[in-house]
Amino acid sequence: MSGAFAGKVVLITGGARNLGRAMGTAFAAAGASIAINARSQRPELAETIAAIESAGGKAIPCIADITDRAAVDRMVAAILNRFGRLDILVNNAVTHATKPFLELSFADWRAPITVTLDGAFHCTQAVVPTMMRAGGGSIVNMGGLFGHMPIPNRAPTAAAKAGLAGLTRALALELAAHNINVNYVAPGPANTVRDGQFEFDIKRIPFGRFAEPAEIVATVMMLCGRDGRFVTGQTIHVNGGLFMNN
What we know:
By secondary structure, this protein is α/β, with parallel strands linked by helices. Helices cover about 45% and strands about 15% of the residues. The chain has 7 helices and 7 strands. The radius of gyration is 17 Å and the shape is globular.
């Protein structure tokens, strides 16, 4: 398969559905080989792999708990054994705790931070050495609205996403000498499948609608492609002007 990412290998954490699936299929359509991570084997993961392969792409499932460093190391080793390289990491895994702050248990508080922030730490530290040996790479940390503007009952997610933005800037500075760019994409509400109810006043978005997944994916791919190589340490909001309008 030819394309802008021909010969490249992409690891997407938390990639079984929604934005993860959209990113995987788009990168594959552009020629990349895809490793899709999920914590457990689920029908959504199989569907994502099948969608990529039916379009002529290459994809492998990577079952691993990214909060477990040993599991992450085994996952990266399996990707390298299968494809021989790893060029792009998208830290996309997330979990939410939706409660008023005073009702949070410590476990509620820790869960989003452990998955979002600790998971990004483990995965990034595991893949950077192979990127350095290859002469460069790209890392995109998927943030979100909650880390940058107040949303009730989302304190743990806000803390995790804000921490991820800080990690992005720190890594961008440290890894630039190795030709690795690191950026943070912060989507707003998008037309994806959600667990539980999500209510949002669409009138707050200047464009008057939710994002389509493809619009968010396009930003991620730009940052990982030839035209985005000189962009690093940035937080890019893809939310139809919502953050600006807050």
